[in-house]
Amino acid sequence: xxxxxxxxxxxxxxxxxxxxxxxxxxxxxxxxxxxxxxxxxxxxxxxxxxxxxxxxxxxxxxxxxxxxxxxxxxxxxxxxxxxxxxxxxxxxxxxxxxxxxxxxxxxxxxxxxxxxxxxxxxxxxxxxxxxxxxxxxxxxxxxxxxxxxxxxxxxxxxxxxxxxxxxxxxxxxxxxxxxxxxxxxxxxxxxxxxxx
Length: 196
What we know:
This protein is an alpha/beta fold.
């Protein structure tokens, strides 16, 4: 067994201490086209969940109605998550730039990264600094309630929520999010499509 595999197993084993009812599977990067990776969503309203920012302030998804939300579950001990998060940061940055120059009426797609790190804010801050993550907020699922309510079993998992708060799809495993293929797939669901 390689040293890297041992670290992954130890990290996953330690994380399970905070998720006693769940077995988390870490899923690697998908090489397929995005449309083949996205699983059909339930098209049901996403349960009301509370997540917390780095200062402990609570937030809920109602604050983001009208936008496409990429609700992303990840952890600093998950190798595919580490590889994937910079692409989500780049996508969030691109959406902000498009809104700032008027290419979209508002930010049409927003990324909500929810850390499942049980050691708190510091490992996430250190990770953001080391990877130069600058456009994404630091958010946590303190009680694992969101994780459970949304039926997340794999890391990373991204739940795609439409403008009316319904799940339109999910991706289990890592993907290169900052691509035209992804935005071409997502914008038809948006109420704030790019201007032509």
